[in-house]
Write a structure and sequence with these properties.
It is built from 3 helices and 5 strands. It is of the alpha+beta class.
Amino acid sequence: MSAPLPPSRPVNCGRPRPGEERSRVRILLVESLPVLGEVVHARVEGLRMRNPHAKTGFSKVIGHMPFAADAVRQSVTELVGELPLPDDWRDGYDTWRAAFDAGQAGVYSIPLAETVEITEQALSRAG
């Protein structure tokens, strides 16, 4: 997809994980950073991600994930509407930005589905 990625737009991504066919990625912020170029901050919704820290054992949402814009464009299959931004979206962004400014954080440059797998594996190891 070569179209702009405007904030507050949920998007469908190709190849959802089994049981997550209704998952969406919501674009929170698109910014240009000198070292990284265009960065897309996104929220992933509609998941069934194993999480030993969650009361139900599963998480439905990853509140903030920073991506290289090309990774998002290669994963997105369609824009599906417009929704208001969640009230708490800046919390994850602010945490990431402080770590990034300190040289301790970067962005994902792999397909979105792979980032969910990596996050799930990290949560399982931390459990």
